[in-house]
Amino acid sequence: METYNVLFAFGLTIFAGLSTGIGSALAFFAKRTNPKFLSSSLGFSAGVMIYVSFVEIFPEARHSMIEGAGYIKGNWLTVIAFFFGIAIIGIIDKLVPSYENPHEIRNIEDLKKGNDKLDNHSNKKLMRMGLFSALAIAIHNFPEGMATFTAALTDPNLGVAIAVAIAIHNIPEGIAVSVPIYYATGDKKKAFIYSFLSGVSEPIGAFIGYLILRPFMGPMVFGFLFASVAGIMVYISLDELLPTAEEYGEHHIAIFGLIAGMAVMAVSLLLFI
What we know:
Blueprint: H1 2-17, H2 20-29, H3 35-69, H4 71-95, H5 109-112, H6 120-154, H7 156-185, H8 188-197, H9 201-213, H10 219-248, H11 251-271
């Protein structure tokens, strides 16, 4: 049973990570960007991740910490671990150059402009932007992979919800990588491959995390890891998903998507009580 759970968790992590390829494919086969759909989807993803972090993951982490360290110490350690997760993903963001941020908005229409008028210098600059975006996304996806894997290993239903939310989050990132690389090279295949590979770090993060933490797994380690995952997901939602949702569409569309994500997550958790 444990082997099945591990394989299932890895499968969900692979699905979430490689959905950057979905973004790349959408960019090549869709005729135009649907900003309202993207905005509501990203808001929905943020709603799922924020709700599940505070209602399900954080309390679960707190329960494990109290079991391992006692009531007062356990509560303190849970809060520390939560902000530790935020600090980790915040540091990663700080290390990624802002001018090559992978969350800069890219539209499908950008592909239709062609690259005939670009000189060699512009091509190199765009290629560099695309490659840096791929690297930045790979770095971001590493802790996301651990988050998805840990949740799925503990509660498969929770893991599915988080995997879907992160998959939605990864779609615009796939566009962010593929557009500048295609614009620089005119090669759809190369743009798709780089975009697809940028998501590979998600299952790699899960695999490395599993190998490192498996021998030490107990209530304290589990609680610290789960609280950190909650912090990571809240940061991603507030720093990446919601701002990107608002840039793609209108404020209210993003917020309605956020509320819908929370409502769907709430109902799905109630159904599995």
